[in-house]
Amino acid sequence: MIALSVNLNKIALIRNSRDTCNPDIPLHAKMCIDAGADGITVHPRPDQRHIRVRDCFDLAAMLDVEFNIEGNPFTGPRNSERAGVEDYPGFMALVKEIRPAQCTLVPDGDGQLTSDHGFDLKRDGERIAPLVQELQALGIRTSLFMDPDPEQIRLAAQTGTDRIELYTESWAQAYRLGDNVDAVFQQFVEAAETATDAGLGINAGHDLDLHNLPRFATIAGLQEVSIGHALTVDAIRMGLAATVAAYQLALGNR
User: Fold this and answer.
1) What pLDDT is recorded for position 80?
2) Among this protein's residues, is 70 annotated catalytic?
3) Is 206 one of the annotated active-site residues of the chain?
C-alpha cells in the first residue's frame, strides 16, 4: 500500500485570509484521517503565510497518524510581522521540539511561491549529512526532496537519509500537456530504481492529482505521496471525505 499524506497548507492559507480560526486546522486533519488519510503533512515557512508555528504544535498534540513536517533546514529564526502570530523559531529548532515521525528537508528559499527544485548535493551534501544525523538521533525519519536525477539520488544515500521525496512537477506538467509523457515517466522509474538500489525509501509529491496519480503509483518501491493543492481544490467540488477516498482509489488502495 502507498501511504497518502494530506498536506494542509492550503487549508491554512484560506484561514489566514481572515483574522479567524476558521477553517480549523486540527479539525480538518481529523476529517482527513477519518476519511482514510494515512498521514498529515505541513510545510511551515518562515513568513507563516499558511501553516504557522502554533499549528504544528496543535497537530502534534492530536495526531495518531504519521506527522510529516517539511522545510528548509538552513532557515533560522524570524520575528513575526503579524499581531498574535508567534515568532518562527527556525526550522530545525521547530522540528527538534516537536519530533514528528518524519521530516522532509526541502531547499526552498523565502522568495519561492512553492517548492520548485530538489537538493544539489554536490554543493550541499556535506551540510545536509550532519542534520540528517541530528534528526535520526531523535527518532525522526528523514527524507530529502530530490529531482529524478540518479546521480543526485546516489549522493542522497551518502548523507545517510532514510528516504527521498521525488519532486514530481515535471511528471505533472508532461501529463497535463501530453508532451513526452512516456519519457518523463521513465525518468522517475529510473530514479526510483536508483533509490531502491541505494537502500533508500521513496516518497513523492508536488502537483500529483487524480488524473496523473494512477500511473505514477505503479512505480516500484513508492511508499508515500504527499498531496495538498490538488486535493484541496478537488475537495471544494467533491467534499473532503469523498476526495480523500478518491485519492486512495487513485493510489490503488481501495
Assistant:
1) 83
2) yes
3) yes
Q: Which domain holds residue 187?
A: 3-250
Pairing of strands 141-146, 66-71: unpaired
Active-site residue, from 28, 50, 70, 224: 70
Residue ranges, the chain, pLDDT below 70? 83, 109-116
- Among the listed residues 28, 50, 165, 206, the single catalytic one is 206
pLDDT score, position 245 = 98
pLDDT at 79: 86
To the query of whether residue 50 is one of the catalytic residues in this protein, the response is no
Domains identified in the chain, total number: 1
pTM: 0.95
CATH label of the domain that carries residue 167: 3.20.20.70
Active-site pick, 43, 50, 165, 224: 43
